[in-house]
Design brief:
Elements lengths: L1 H16 L8 E6 L2 E8 L2 E8 L3 E3 L9 E7 L4 E8 L9 E6 L2 E8 L2 E4 L5 H10 L2 E7 L5 E7 L3 H7 L5
Antiparallel strand pairs: 1-2, 2-3, 3-5, 4-11, 5-6, 6-9, 7-8, 7-10, 8-9, 10-11
């Protein structure tokens, strides 16, 4: 299931960045730092909110394109699943850590993607995102570099509300 999620997520991101495929994902709106999008997949409609980091550390590294998003896939009974996508492969068997207002959440990594390690914590992370102002994600690249990203949470509540009725 997580492999399918990674594939769908990667395709959605490609659709947003590749002009030839841009019609695959439709932008629903923009809520401060968070954009909202949808597309049709074989399992039904997929809606998601997405943002990019406001800060990338260390500044001397080529981080590539970085995204944090939350997807809603009613046809697959998936509701508000957070995912972090890096512009590089993570170090094998490494964890990424999301921190909001002193509360940390562990994410397992595979390739360029990371998901909340304990699915029961996903709603807790979403609640923290809604009440916080910034979110920090720390990860380790395949080359062994420790990287840190800061994402603004301004607009996340409105963005998530806009995809609540995704069907």
């Amino acid at each position: 299931m997580r492999g399918l999620i990674a594939t769908i997520s990667s395709l959605a991101l490609v659709a947003m960045t590749a002009p030839a495929l841009a019609q695959s994902a439709t932008k629903i709106g923009q809520h401060n730092a968070w954009g909202t999008y949808s597309y049709q997949a074989s399992g039904g409609k997929v809606c998601y909110v997405l943002t990019v980091p406001t800060d990338k550390q260390p500044p001397t590294l080529d981080h590539g394109d970085m995204f944090f998003f939350v997807s809603q896939r009613p046809g697959q009974q998936v509701s508000y699943e957070p995912q972090f996508i890096a512009g590089y492969n993570f170090q094998e068997n490494s964890k990424a850590t999301v921190t909001i207002d002193g509360k940390s959440f562990s994410m397992f990594t595979r390739g360029k993607s990371a998901w909340v390690e304990n699915a029961a914590e996903e709603p807790v992370l979403i609640a923290a995102m809604k009440s916080g102002s910034d979110m920090k994600v720390q990860a380790k690249s395949g080359r062994g570099n420790t990287t840190t990203y800061v994402f603004s949470l301004k607009g996340i509540s409105a963005a998530l509300s806009s995809i609540a009725r995704c069907k």
